[in-house]
Amino acid sequence: MADVALQPSSTAAARTAQKRSGLRNVLGRKSTIAFLMALPLILLIATLVIYPAFYAVHLATLNKSMARFVGTGNFEFLFKRETFWLVVKQSCIFAITAVIFKAVIGFIVAHFVHNIPAKGQRKWRGMLLVPWVIPPAMSTLAWLWLFDPSYSAFNYTLSFFGIGPIPWTGDPYWARFSVILVNIWVGAPFFMIMYLAALKSVPDQLYEAAAIDGANWWQRIWYVTLPMMRNIIAITTLFSLIVTFANFDIVRILTAGGPLDHTHIFATWAFRVGIEGSDIPLGASVSLFMVPILAVAAIFILRDISKRGNEA
Amino acid sequence: MSRKKLSRRQFVAATALTSAAMITAPYVRGAHAAGKLSIGFWDHWVPGANKASTDIVNAWAEKEKVEVQIDYIPSQGNKNLLTIAAEAQAKSGHDILAMPTWWPHAQAELLEPMNDVMGDLIKQNGEVNGTVKYLGQSKGNWLAVPASVGSQIKGPCSRIDLMKKHAGIDVQALYPAGQAPKADSWNLETFLKAAEACQKAGVPFGIGLGETSDNVDSAGAFFQAHGAALVDEKGNLTVKTDAVRQSLEFYKKLISFLPPDVGAWDDASNNKWLVSGKGAMIMNPPSAWAVAKRDAPQVAEQCWTHGFPVGPKGRYAPYLSYFWATWSFSKNKPAAKSVLRALSTPEAIEKMCVASGGYDLPGYANLTTLKVWQEEGPPKGTLYHYPNPHNHQTLSIAAAPAPPKIAQQIYTQATMTKMCLRYAQGEAMEKTLAWAEGECEGFMRS
Hints:
The structure holds two protein chains of two kinds. By secondary structure, chain A is mainly alpha-helical. Chain A is built from 14 helices and no strands. Chain A folds into two domains: 1-59, no CATH class; 72-311, MetI-like (MetI-like fold), CATH 1.10.3720.10. In chain A, α4 packs across α10 (217-245) and α12 packs antiparallel against α13 (280-288). By secondary structure, chain B is α/β, with parallel strands linked by helices. Chain B has helices spanning 8-24, 49-64, 79-90, 103-106, 115-125, 130-136, 160-167, 171-174, 188-200, 213-225, 242-255, 269-275, 287-295, 297-300, 333-343, 346-355, 371-375, 404-412, 415-424, 429-443, and strands at 36-42, 67-73, 96-100, 137-138, 141-142, 145-153, 156-159, 281-283, 303-305, 316-326, 394-396. In chain B, the strands form three sheets. In chain B, strands 1, 2, 3, 6, 10 and 11 form a six-stranded mixed β-sheet that branches. A three-stranded antiparallel β-sheet of chain B has the order 8-7-9. Chain B has a two-stranded antiparallel sheet with strand order 4-5. Chain B is built from 20 helices and eleven strands. The chains are: A mainly alpha, B alpha/beta. Chains A and B meet through α12 of A and α3, α12, α18, α19 and α20 of B.
């Protein structure tokens, strides 16, 4: 009887104790602690990235005066615009060319730096990182003066060799060349430092084995270095592709999209249409158009990485 | 230690007094009794020019017992446009915000009507010019108050010596200081001949064909001189007309006399062109001359600001008006309207114009003959014709008379300068026109 009478209260107490220990267990878990520590960052990203992203989607579904829902009307309108397709083409040319050159230059320079004796290497690493460390808006201003239509320092120098003057920002093709060149100058050090880190992690024994097998320098690169660096190359390329596609400052400062719209990329044209032209929904639609392109690139690259991870 | 006891009567009396004081406190005329007002003014290029606006507002605030906060927002990097867009999205921000040219129309649905203020200001300062009406009015309602600060005409600024020497044109005789212009011979033909002569002499005119405001404004004035518009006031496409074709032919000739890189020029390029002494003429307000006065006095003393050449359909000059607007969600509209009246008195306008060295140009008819433009120099009288004191030319803006929301797109996308460049670079006339027509069709979306 007494047992029966006591049972409910003992069960409740047991449940409370169980709950407490359960909570303690949850709090004690490494994953929970990690989540709690990452929570401020998650909230920050939610506020500054996820909310604006959804807001941009919302804006892109409104008409010009933002008073009416038009669904995909803005995208349908864009697809009929000649300038929009010019911007798509240029964004692809700009991003792909710049990323390829950044990767190649970064790879070559990383090898040079890797072969410098350890004593002097830090100094070189520091100097080579300078273009990447300076805020691009500032360094692009310096480039703007070098490319200035009327007072270009490059043209002044070239004139001593009887060359030029070259319309660096005045001719559509030279202007494209100029904005890509500056982007490569800014971004190549990032590739260099990533590749350098990857190079340092390649075991020397592999090169020794390759040397014993009689491999020349090209075979060592092709069969040892590149396979060992594949994942870092893929990740760096993806990261750089996203950043280069979304570039704004270099083009905005150097050419503002001109001449004749031949250097506009998504971000600069979105700004021109959305802010300068007071058509925010259309500007939001232009900038959102980057998402599917980058998503496809990200899926392919990340799938390749995870496939290789599984194989390993 | 004595302890005073509070009686019931004393307690009731004290409570009543405190309550009365708390209830009546907001109505006591203290230092900031009329509330707060936040203002976003345009940050002037001319050093020290902001001080005149600050002084006028502070004097008004002192008198009206309003706590004022002024932010000077630069147009560098389009910071002012970003602020307008952000405040419009947030439905929160400054009580008064300076808006350039097209932005009152772009934000028309969110602005407090200013009919009452403008009625009084027009009575006080005279009629406003047509461009101010075009940019500041919608369906008969005033969207904002025209600001003298930042408003400007981008007329020709010529080198007296170079024009005389190479083109045989005495610009001071055409536009004598203190007198009406004698510029009947100053037409598009004379202009082209002068451009050719100066180019041959190695000092070409510096007229840009990039996508920024200065370039677009010049193209707009030349198109209007031919009677050309891409879209008419009713919103009809008028790209494929003889007037537009004539404008393109004119520009094709002109481009052959300009520096080869004009397609890449921005708003600073023409200023640098004049100050460096490389060119005989640019189209700009007196800011380039003001810089030359400081950095290249020998250039500045040869500069003369004057009117545009006349074309088959008239003499047009680009007028860019700034406005002071109040959001419909502003928290202190009465105070905003009151300070806008204080900023628009003839005395206040003159004070701001003087502080800007004659750069600012009010849009009111009675205020285009201030002393500042007669006295500024060297050479004395160089700015006399800058404010169009004899109404010698029609003040307009590129892309007018198209409905402002369409015109803003034509202007921002620099459709006219792009057309000129395309045609001058060898594209067939009809192809250029078809391209422009397609662009303008796209600008009509609502």
